[in-house]
Amino acid sequence: MTIHETRESSTIHLECVQDGLSQGHLLIRQLEPKLWQVQEWKAPQHSAECMSEIIRALRALGLAEQAQFLSNNLNTPVNNLLEQAGWHVAKQKALVERSLLQPLPKVHVSFQWSSLEEVGSAEFIRVLLIASQGDPFQTSTPQTAEQDFAALVEYAGTRFDPSRWFIAAQDGQEVGVLLPQMYADRSDTGTLFYLGVCPEFRGRGLGRALHAEGLKQLQARGAANYQGSTDLRNEGMRHIFALNGCTEVRQQWFYEGAGT
To answer: Can you tell me which residues the record assigns to a coiled coil (predicted)?
Structure first.
């Protein structure tokens, strides 16, 4: 029994083949270059050999590609398959939604704004890195900041607009960053790629104010819906979501393999 791997666009197809006949297959969708999700897993119920070959192929993919798998459930055959292949749950996220057709939160905090387009990428990355300092749920470092920023730009796709990502200031001092983003494949839905408050300005309610401003920006760009997410352990961000009228709709689990 052998595994045939084929790739087309954003899908990876692993097929167990024996004597020219398919014995089962695994279909993986690439949500992002390094974030995958199993779309379909089919194999004969008692085919231990097929299962073993798929597990071997998954383990090799984990080592070679260093991607994560996203799962919307925990107790499924897919989760069992990932775990047998050596993948483990690395983090959980809470997902929220909010209608932007309803009245937005009123937060009486004012900012001065400078866009990525105005300041350039080097300056923007510098402030973005400051705003992420001490954030246990943001993993950028001075060594990876440019690469992490490039990944955000790539993920924004055709809807990337450098005039819409901002540095926030008060009285001439940089206090945070705000990255409102419309989804490339959903014209009525937006998110915030990141918002962060610089360390010395935390604890003043600026996180909530930045989030509220982000909702306002998305609404002005034609979004009818907002979707957001954060690490399940990030109680501060989950509190901001609740204060600004967002509803937690589900949770997600992220698996990492031996090579990540």
So the answer is: none
